[in-house]
Automatic annotation (TrEMBL):
It comes from Arcobacter nitrofigilis (strain ATCC 33309 / DSM 7299 / CCUG 15893 / LMG 7604 / NCTC 12251 / CI) (Campylobacter nitrofigilis). This is Type IV / VI secretion system protein, DotU family. The keyword Transmembrane applies. The chain crosses the membrane at residues 236-256. Keywords: Membrane, Transmembrane, Transmembrane helix. PANTHER family: DOTU FAMILY TYPE IV_VI SECRETION SYSTEM PROTEIN, MEMBRANE PROTEIN-RELATED. Residues 57-258 form the Type IV / VI secretion system DotU domain. It comes from the Bacteria.
Amino acid sequence: MNNKTILISNNQNRNFSNNLTSNQRKTINRDNINNYQSRFKRSKQSKFKNYEISFNPFITAAMPIFKLVFEIKEDIEDASINDIREEFIDKVNTYTETASSLDIDENEILVIRYVLCSFVDEFMNSHFLSKDYNWSNNSLLSIFHNETYGGENFFHLLNRFLKTPAKYIHILELLYSCLALGFEGKYRVISRGEVELNNIKDSLFKQIKIVQGREPFPFYSKQIPAQESYKLFNKIPYSTLFFSVSLLLLIIYSGLTFSLSNQNNDFIDLINNKTTIEIDDLYTGDKK
């Protein structure tokens, strides 16, 4: 398996973590992780089929939240706002428990919880905007952090962690995941916000690639434009192209021929009429 960040489900991670002692958890690193990777099987029912284990504990702990976002996005018409809120509260609590079990620093757990609450709040506000609901009155950020808007603090945190990217690379990866999944924050409402946000995402993408020595994993990989331009002739068989061109030329030729023939007939009729008139005039004159 390549050395890249990949994901497992929260249940898989919790079951494995429960079977390890605290000392064993601390000794698992990138050098000896191959000793454990055979314990994980890729789930055919999971929507996230490209990863088997995660080197990023924050994303592992946050996966239930991301998964719920995808599920709601696919079936948002039949969703109940109150039921959704309760589900997200449960997922955020699960994130906190999972992150704690992975020996993540408590302050970092709270920071990422703040980020995840901001991400979910913006998602819900944007998708339920046309409905008679007001998510912000009882948002996740207000429930867990007693704040109402995290769209600006998200980027303050990003700038702070970018000062020491190697130390906070896992946090930066999670922040990039939120951006790649549609989080805009304060850039949603400012002029030219989309352009500035794209620049931030590009810069963060490059920084992660520099620190990790590889591109970010497929869950949030940057969309790279195709290297070759689209060519119509590469998509159409030559026989079909030749037949189509020949048919088009035949239609044009037939149309021009028919038009020219009609014009010639009109011209000949005009000449014949004029000649007949002149002969009649000449004949009439001779009689006189």
